[in-house]
């Protein structure tokens, strides 16, 4: 028997984290911002604001299965909100003489210390689980298929997450019944029950729900293994009526929309000022020297909420009547020599930063398609229209995951839709930054489908 308690919850961890973080933000303020003035008002207002912000941003909702990148995303989000609050405070209480530069340095110091503390706790808990066998949860799985086997392997191969998997029940096997499962759960003091929906009938699901409720067991369901698209259901109440929302889209949140739009404006402005200001004349001369026609190519595409907009690119083809109907293919004779280079390096896409600045596009998002292709794929490819819940992007997760360029088979567009839906449902500023970096790396290396 382990010497350490195997309880399901670390009940004191969150309150302790609150207290330590408040000590950090107030302690740093006392030492750095208020060397002469009385900081009492600041302490009261900023502590209350911190609490409200953390509830809103779910800053302390870090679980054993939370990935480090998600923790970092929470920290960045909380930092931006906290920075705005401190600036607002300095404006309201200008007599305290808190200036912009000290505020930025103060918030950076706070979040370096808070980040160190948060990740230290996270990794110490993982070490505690692997080295001492504490803070773990006993699990069983009901139902046997590829997904439950994958979950079984996850539990066994990742002890740092603190799951001790005891048994997987195959209800299709005559030796296993729900009654035996329930007896085993009680006898072994199981903490969490995982069920495969595809392996259970409605009556079996109802029995398991009742058992879990009556015996204070955590119950979780694994979606049907035939479903290839991710679903993040949101559970809400309309009065006393439970309602499930099919998917939760982070960019429907006004704060997330503000953050993304602010990033888009800043990033696109930098690209336009630092790169396009001098590169555009050079590209324009090269395009004009090789062929007659305009420097820029304008094409109507579908964007946010299916709205049509004009998407801009450097012209990379000879002027032709098929430009608005047919994609470039491998060895396409319409592509000029200059066009081949700018397409290979993705320079032809740079004018779309003006689309971003104007608000039609985002730096990162699902790539927009020609209107004719959108109409075709909407009829042919399931869930294709989900991509229009957010603004289209210059680059996207699908493009950095091998699904850029020409759609040669249905597999290409299905893969693109799958990654686009994942991006829409799991957006974060850090994910955008990661995609931008990967896009730059791919452009330098060159891609097989960049033609």
From TrEMBL:
Family annotation (Pfam families): Bac_transf
MF terms in GO: undecaprenyl-phosphate glucose phosphotransferase activity
Top-level enzyme category: transferase
Annotated keywords: Membrane, Transferase, Transmembrane, Transmembrane helix
Keyword Ligase in annotation: no
Keyword Membrane: yes
Membrane protein topology class: Multi-pass membrane protein
The name this protein goes by in its record: Undecaprenyl-phosphate glucose phosphotransferase
């Amino acid at each position: 028997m382990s010497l350490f308690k195997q309880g399901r919850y670390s009940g004191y961890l969150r309150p302790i984290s609150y207290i330590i973080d408040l000590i950090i933000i107030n302690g740093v303020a006392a030492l750095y911002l208020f060397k002469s003035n009385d900081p009492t008002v600041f302490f009261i207002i900023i502590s209350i604001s911190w609490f409200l912000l953390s509830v809103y941003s779910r800053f302390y909702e870090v679980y054993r299965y939370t990935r480090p990148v998600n923790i970092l995303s929470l920290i960045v989000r909380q930092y931006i909100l906290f920075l705005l609050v401190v600036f607002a405070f300095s404006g309201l209480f200008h007599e305290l003489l808190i200036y912009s530069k000290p505020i930025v340095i103060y918030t950076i110091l706070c979040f370096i210390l808070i980040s160190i503390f948060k990740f230290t706790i996270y990794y110490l808990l993982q070490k505690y689980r692997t080295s001492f066998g504490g803070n773990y949860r006993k699990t069983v799985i009901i139902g046997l298929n590829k997904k439950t086997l994958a979950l079984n392997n996850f539990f066994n191969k990742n002890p740092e997450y603190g799951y001790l998997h005891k048994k997987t029940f195959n209800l299709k096997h005559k030796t296993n019944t729900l009654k035996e499962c329930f007896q085993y759960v009680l006898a072994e003091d199981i903490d969490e029950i995982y069920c495969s929906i595809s392996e259970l009938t409605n009556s079996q699901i109802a029995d398991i729900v009742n058992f879990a409720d009556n015996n204070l067991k955590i119950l979780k369901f694994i979606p049907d293994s035939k479903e290839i698209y991710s679903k993040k259901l949101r559970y809400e109440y309309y009065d006393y009526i439970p309602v499930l929302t099919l998917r939760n889209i982070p960019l429907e949140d006004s704060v997330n929309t503000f953050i993304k739009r602010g990033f888009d404006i800043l990033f696109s402005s930098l690209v336009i000022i630092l790169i396009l200001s001098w590169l555009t004349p050079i590209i324009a001369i090269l395009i004009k020297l090789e062929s007659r026609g305009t420097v820029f190519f304008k094409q109507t595409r579908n964007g946010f909420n299916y709205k049509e907009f004009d998407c801009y690119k450097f012209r990379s083809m000879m002027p032709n009547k098929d430009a608005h109907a047919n994609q470039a293919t491998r060895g396409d004779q319409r592509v000029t020599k200059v066009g081949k280079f700018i397409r290979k390096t993705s320079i032809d896409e740079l004018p779309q930063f003006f689309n971003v600045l104007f608000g039609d596009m985002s730096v990162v998002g699902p790539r927009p398609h020609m209107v004719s292709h959108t109409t075709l794929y909407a009829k042919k490819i399931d869930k294709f229209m989900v991509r229009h819940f957010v603004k289209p992007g210059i680059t996207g997760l699908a493009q950095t995951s091998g699904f850029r360029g020409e759609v040669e088979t249905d597999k290409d567009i299905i893969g693109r839709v799958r990654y686009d839906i994942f991006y829409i449902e799991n957006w974060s500023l850090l994910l955008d930054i990661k995609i931008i970096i990967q896009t730059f790396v791919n452009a330098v290396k060159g891609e097989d489908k960049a033609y």
